[in-house]
C-alpha cells in the first residue's frame, strides 16, 4: 500500500514492468537491493507475500518509510546486513550495483536466493569500445525524445555515481558468478541480468 505520492517516470522506472514480470508465481519473499524511495518495493508488495527494501542512504530509507506502508525498509550495507541465506524467492536491484563491488554483490544476491528463485539486476555501465560508443550515439536522439515526452525526473537526493565497469566487463563478471545468466542491453542506457538459481 502506498501513501499519497506523486507518480514519476525515469529510465530506472522504465525497467519496473520487466522486473515485475520476472517475479516467480507464488513468490513468498522478495528483496529490493538499493531500494531508493521504495517505489519498486511497493509494487513488489502487490505480488509477493513479504518484501524487504535495503539502501545505504538514510534519506532514501526515511523517504521510503514515509511514502509506503507495506514493505520493510532497512538502512545499511547490503553486503553485511543480517539477511537470511536462501531466504528470498526473488531478488532485484535497479541501478545500484555500480555503487558496490560488483562480484561481491552478485555473490551475495545469489546466496540470498532460495533454490528456484529468480534474480534480476538492472545496471549502468560505461562504453568501453567503439561499438559501444556508436550504439550510444545512434540511440541518443530517441533517448532524448522519450525522456522529453515522458517528462523524466529523478527524485531529489537520490545518490548517483558514474559506472566504472564496461558492458563487456559486466558480462564477463556476471557469467563467472552466475553461470548461464541472461544478459540484455536496453535502449535507455541500461543492461539487465536475469538468472534462476538451480
Descriptors:
198 residues, alpha/beta, Rossmann fold
Q: What value does the average pLDDT take?
A: 92
The number of helical elements comes to 6
Q: Write down the oligomeric state.
A: single chain
Percent helix: 25-40%
Q: Order of strands side by side in the largest beta sheet?
A: 3-2-1-4-5-7-6
CATH superfamily: Vaccinia Virus protein VP39
Sum this structure up briefly.
This protein has 198 residues and is an alpha/beta fold. It is built from six helices and seven strands. The model has no long low-confidence stretch (mean pLDDT 92).
Explained architecture:
With 198 residues, this protein is an alpha/beta fold. It has one domain (13-125, 158-196): Rossmann fold, CATH 3.40.50.150. The protein is built from 6 helices and 7 strands. A 7-stranded mixed sheet has the order 3-2-1-4-5-7-6, sandwiched between helices. Helix 2 (39-44) links the parallel strand 1 (29-33) and strand 2 (50-55). It starts with 15 loop residues before the first helix and ends with a strand. The model has no long low-confidence stretch (mean pLDDT 92).
Question: SSE layout and pairings?
Answer:
Layout lengths: L15 H6 L7 E5 L5 H6 L5 E6 L2 H10 L4 E4 L12 E7 L7 H11 E11 L6 H21 L16 H11 L4 E5 L3 E7 L2
Parallel strand pairs: 1-2, 1-4, 2-3, 4-5
Antiparallel strand pairs: 5-7, 6-7
